[in-house]
Protein 1
Amino acid sequence: MEKARAYLIISGRVQGVFYRAFTEDAAHLLGLKGWVKNCSDGKVEALFEGEKENIEKAIGLCYKGPPAAKVNNIEVKWEDFKGEFDTFSVRYF
């Protein structure tokens, strides 16, 4: 399996709707590492590392989000795998 890394910027109604917790759960379910955080402009950023196929599945889940979310767009930037994370976490900064 191919290892990959993807940086996402998610826009829409994605703050105050448990979007970060949803993303963290999806990452753990798929064995991905990285982080997710809120941005000051109302968007959410996420970085996934792991098997490319599982990252693609996570991106699909991010389009759905939790029930109260409404995702308008996800910008995805594929990067080279770095293997710099031990787990997936919610960042608060």
Note: The domain at 13-91 is CATH 3.30.70.100 (Alpha-Beta Plaits).
Protein 2
Amino acid sequence: MIPYKNEKGFTLIELIIIIVILGIIAAIAIPKYLDSKKAAEKAVAEGLVGAMRSALTIYYSNWIAKNKGTLRNFRDNISIPNFVKLYNDSMGQTGNETLIIDQSITSKFAQELGSIRDYATDGSGRQLRIEFKSGGILNIYYDREKPAIEATYDNFN
């Protein structure tokens, strides 16, 4: 019979200790990963709002420069889909949009829709609600009296 003294390997106790240590590490790391994912999506949402504010400013400046009408005409006739489109927008692009939202941003949305119009929640194109995969909700409001973009961020914490 061959003696077992020369065999190498882990004992059951050693394996249990390793499994417990890995469990503790996973219990600490997974919540931090999930929090960082939500923080990253909030950063994407904040970046999107900033880009929309810039797009509105550029669109408004072009409107004034071309003397298309008064501020009242601008306020009454402009909605978010006039100056913002999604990449590959199924509603079509006019070439006048100052912001085309890239697929890298729309891939973070919970639903994939073909047009920014699909996101309108009040029918006027002045309010958008965008849900992200992590459960965060971005509410965007076009305030036509200023004109300005306002936003609220829900469930990103």
Note: The first strand starts at residue 84 and ends at 86.
Protein 3
Amino acid sequence: MRSGFSRFCRLLVPVLAGTILLSGCAGVDSFLTKEKEVRAPYFLKQQPRACVDKVGIKGRFSIYYKRDDREEGVHGGFEWEQTPELTTITLLSPLGQVAATIDVMPQLATFTVPGKPPKSAPDADRLIQSQLGWALPVSGMKEWLQGCAVDAQGKPFIASPEKKSVITKDRWQIDYVTWIDGPTMPLPKRINLVRGKDLTDLDLNMKLVIDEWRF
């Protein structure tokens, strides 16, 4: 359990409170999220949000979590490639080195750290937490990143610039902090995800900044 996490932590330097590494990503066939933030009326003029099965995302993350009753944190970059058959998440150090790769298929997840044998398990979320020491809820994030979720009452939730927050049935609070103009509708730019007993006793606080969308 600790070997993969130790390698990851050597590559991802500790986070200073409230700091997110600011760096951009580029791509020829991509929609870069450098436009101005949208206002609520923009969304009202667009078609209803629909989450898709195929999407590519590049961005940055900052994570604070509790481990052995101590607060720790890491930050870096990530690449997210999603299809119905396979989702691949690449975690990067602040310098752009590959720290870990996670491949998620419907019945199997594989966690790979450079120089180490891959680890596999049926449950992606449990496998990731066992290797890193903190949660990365891949099963939910397939839709959460795009602004779709199921709330605590089991009802579908569709985020918008004027409807920004939801608590999911598995106790994650998601806040879509800022948005950018997408080709047909607004897209999330900054997303905060927290989990814990309540907002004063968090066991994980994740901040995401999305730099690039590909559809």
Note: Residues 2-16+33-210 form a domain with the outer membrane lipoprotein receptor (LolB), chain A fold (CATH 2.50.20.10).
Protein 4
Amino acid sequence: MEIPVELAENYINRRIKDLEYLETALDDENFLVCEQIGHRLKGSALTFGFSELQDVATQLETHAKEQDKESLASDVSDFRNWVEKLVN
């Protein structure tokens, strides 16, 4: 099933917002917000055909649960790289 362009664009725009929320939550050490975003991303990534994002989201959720700020910062960086690839 092909995802309509408008839905895909909206999905990507929401991921840009998620990146902003993740960066703020990481700075504030708000691991619960990071975990929730990772969980949500993990659930929606494959629906839109983004298997790489699902892998990143799984790591986000796991490291947030563990409150592993160093690994979580790396995951947020991976997510940032994923978003940048899509918008450029």
Note: The mean pLDDT is 93.
